Amino acid sequence: MAYDPNNIFARILRGEIPNKTVYEDEHALAFHDINPQTPTHVLVIPKGAYVSFADFSAKASDAEIVGFVRAVGKVARDLGAEEPGYRILANNGADARQEVPHLHVHVFAGTDLGRMIKPAGK
Question: GO molecular function terms here (predicted)?
Fold first, then answer.
């Protein structure tokens, strides 16, 4: 999947599309998902043009990587999700059903999230 500079997250970063910002710094932007799947559903995106974790880990600077990881943790803490718990999820590629070609992490919280995936063979 190639990076599309006109993807919705790139447009949000450029201020072309409004969002409900939760957190922002020089490396990351976090905002509420427009179609929440749990009571708390926030997306955290790096400000750089990265398609996936593989792309990000290969091309981002150390400062970008540290800043993004810290932003995910800060968002979870600020949302009050440390206790009783939360899930982070990043879909990468077609088989994972990644819809937007810009690295993003979903932070899910606010309810019992159940099993992550079905056990193998079921």
Answer: catalytic activity
CATH number (domain holding residue 64): 3.30.428.10
The neighbour count for residue 101, using CB atoms within 10 Å, is 21
**pTM check: above 0.90:** yes
In a domain, 44, yes or no: yes
Is the distance from CB of 107 to CB of 88 less than 8 angstroms? yes
Mean pLDDT of 63-82: 97
Q: Hey, which residues does 28 pair with through a beta bridge?
A: 46
User: Catalytic pick from 27, 102, 104, 106?
Assistant: 104
Q: Which domain holds residue 76?
A: 8-109
Q: Reply yes or no on whether the pLDDT at 122 is more than 90.
A: no
